[in-house]
From TrEMBL:
Pfam families to which the protein is assigned, alphabetical: Rubis-subs-bind (PF09273), SET (PF00856)
Record-linked PROSITE patterns: SET (PS50280)
Alphabetic keyword roster: Methyltransferase, S-adenosyl-L-methionine, Transferase
GO molecular function (one): protein-lysine N-methyltransferase activity
Name of this chain's protein: Ribulose-1,5 bisphosphate carboxylase/oxygenase large subunit N-methyltransferase, chloroplastic
Annotated signal sequence range: none
Top-level taxon: Eukaryota
InterPro entries reported in the protein's UniProt record: Rubisco_LSMT_subst-bd (IPR015353), Rubisco_LSMT_subst-bd_sf (IPR036464), SET_dom (IPR001214), SET_dom_sf (IPR046341), SET_RBCMT (IPR044431), SETD3_SETD6_MTase (IPR050600)
GO BP of this protein: methylation
Transmembrane segments: none
Amino acid sequence: MTDLYLSALNIPNQIGVHSVVLLHSDSSPTMSFIASSLPAFNKRHAQSLCRRRSRISLSLSPSSIPRVVKNPRAKKSAVFVEWLKENGMYLSEVATWGRPMHPLAIADETIDDGEVSGRGLIAMKPILQGEAVFEIPYELILTKEVALRSLPLPENVDDYIAIACLLVSERAKGEKSFWKPYFDVLPLDEELIPLFRWSEEDLALLAGSPCIAASKSLGLKLEAEFQSANEMYFENNRETFPEDVFNQEAWEWAFAILFSRAIMLTAEQRIGLVPYADLLNHNPFCSTYIDVHTKPLLDRKVVALYTDRPYNKMDQVFVTYGPKSNSDLLLLYGFVSDRNPYDSVELVVSLSESDPLYERKLAYLAQSGISSTSTFPLYRDRYPMELVEFLRFCVADEAEFTSADFGDFINESNETQVARALVDACQAALDAYPQTREEDDKLMATRSMFQLLSLKQRWAVRQRRAEKRILERTIVNIEKEMSDPTFMFTEVNAT
Ligand SMILES: C[S@@+](CC[C@H](N)C(=O)[O-])C[C@H]1O[C@@H](n2cnc3c(N)ncnc32)[C@H](O)[C@@H]1O
């Protein structure tokens, strides 16, 4: 279980390093498609989107601790900044010999696309492209190695399990934890709302969405993971791992933190929680990266951030959490982006049991190690060629089944049936939602009314509406293609 779950958590060089490939036993081909088909964006458009000014509430500048800070959130940020400085991070507001001022400040509240996005980092002066905007001492990072130094865990324990144990253990130490100021700026428990923490009642808001199955699947995996850690490490050593501290609830909290904040430190091929760096919010149009560097001459390791574009004063500085769909963002981070170019919805397609060739096709698929039910991502403007190939096979008649290469156009009739099957599958997916897209639009249309809904309700409406828009757009695109006399699925209209 542990291996299955964690083997997929090895993705990129960004905050939040998770692939949901683990959630669907049949999704590996899909994920490899995603990886090979990222859209190319107009650079200027991407830069302006990345630089869009979020609404922010700036409660302090980096070195403002001695002032009386009344707002409790700002106070926590100020104490955190002081802790970073005491532990060797350069955060000076003023330039000194050979060192420019630190260019960022913590904003205690940011708003992105009209929704709250928690703390964030803001440019306090213009920042050049490629500038190293911070260097965080390696000693502040929570990694598996740190966990192994303080907890009796085996060397071969998985990184995620080790850091989850470290988080739970350090949180329980309260004031005595070295990381206390860091824990104080983490979101409050009730602010941590990745989909896998939603109750049945909350999930009902997403009726019809494939997100529900993904959420339940991840919830079950975490539960199993906890049971296994309990048996292997906690039950045998209650002195170090007391039952009232190392419980299912704490485990879920630790993973909510890890999923939304852990960074893959590519240079070292390990994950870590990096205080301060994990205050950066997500913008899918950024390619800013964070990694470990050794300071020349000093032999000192730091985690540094290099910007991929210039920033103006008061711009929010973003990173990307990777080319993730909204369902992945909601599942692991607890938010949705309306302008997500990587958004996709999963379409499940199966071999029809009423097909006279059903048994033979089933045997053929089994022989090739392919499931008779497969899941494919539909994007706003494209879908994978693998989906078309699978459907060509599903709709094939006797002659086509025995002689065709499904990777290529077979004949007009087969291609038209594929198109109809795809339209029908999208329509069936749309019919599964209790509300229409127009009803969701209406809910969102009056901003003041929409804001009366809870945050989870608003994310749910945004998510299901985004899914419906992709399904509807796919139908429109296919129907438009079909009206063209030269219609056929190619690498151009599929990818
Ligand atoms: C790595 S943390 C970033 C710092 C975080 N805002 C905080 O207050 O600590 C990731 C979390 O920030 C929030 N977040 C990041 N980017 C966002 C965005 N574009 N829109 C809404 N929320 C976002 C989500 O709650 C996510 O789980």
